Amino acid sequence: MAEPTSQQCDGNCANCASASSCDDPQNTQIKTGPPEKVDMDVKHVILVLSGKGGVGKTTVAANLAMMLSNHGYNTGLADLDITGPNIPKMMGIEEKRLTSYDGKKIEPVRITGTLGVVSMAFLLPEKSTPVIWRGPMKMTAIRQFLEDVNWGSLDYLVVDLPPGTGDEALTIAQLAPNIDGAIIVTTPQEVAILDSSKAVRFVQKIGLKVLGIIENMSGMLCPHCGEEIDLFGTGGGEKAAEELEVPYLGRIPIDPAMRKAGDEGRPFIIRNPDADPDSLTWKAVDEVLAHLLTQIKEQ
Length: 299
Hints:
By secondary structure, the chain is an alpha/beta fold. It has two domains: 1-31, no CATH class; 38-297, Rossmann fold. It is 31% helix and 19% strand. The protein has eight helices and nine strands. Strands 1, 2, 3, 4, 5, 6, 7, 8 and 9 form a nine-stranded mixed β-sheet that branches. 40% of the residues are buried.
C-alpha cells in the first residue's frame, strides 16, 4: 500500500498515479460505500428468489412477467441466473440472440409488444456451454443487462435470480433503482423452508421489502382419482410466512400440465385450449398472482 510522505505528496489527488492505492484519509479519489444505482427508466423492480434450487422460482418469474404484460404494462424480464439461465427455455425463445442496432445499446428479445427479455443464454454458442465466471464478471454482466439494454420506459422489471443469497442478489439490490421488493418461492418440506427463511432474512437485511412467500409444489392432484397427494407436504410456506411475519401469497400444487407448459416454452397462464377450465391448478395460480399484484400495487 502506497504511503504518501510530505516529500512525495503535493495534495493533488486527481493527477496522482498512486491515488487508487493510497490510504491517506484526505485522498479524494477513493470510492467508498455501495455502487451508484444504474440509470434506467423503470417504475417498479421486482426480485424473484429462493433459498434453494428446484422450487419453481423461474416458473413464477416467467408467469408474473407475462401476467403484467397481459395487463398492458411495459414489462422487462431479466434472467440474472448467469450460470443457469432458463428463462428463454420457458418462454419459447431459446434460439433467439441479442442484437444491437447502433453498436451501443443491446436490444432485448421481444415476446410481445409489452414484454422484452434479456438472458445470458442468448449469448452462449451452444445450449450446453457452461458459464465459468467469478463474482466480478457476473457483476459486470448484471450492470450491462440493466443499463446497456434498450429497455425503453418500463412499468415493471421482473428479475429472476439464482438460488441463494450470493453475488447476483446483492449486486441487483445495489444497482437497480425503484425496487418494490422480493418474492420468495419455496416448497413445503422442512429443508426448503430452512433455506427460504434465510432468503427472507437476507432481503430484510439489505433493506428491501418481502412482497410475500409462494408455496410451490404444494400437494399434487392425482390424475386418475382426483385426490390430493402430499408428495412434499403442505403448509410449510404458510407457516414460515406466519413465523417470519411476511405476507403469504398462496400455494400452487404440482401439476403435469405446468411442467409440460415449461418444457414447451409456454407460460402456464397462457391457457391451453385443451385445458380443463375448472382445474384447481388454474384457480390456484390465478389466486396467487392476484394476491401478488395486490401487494405490488400497494407499494
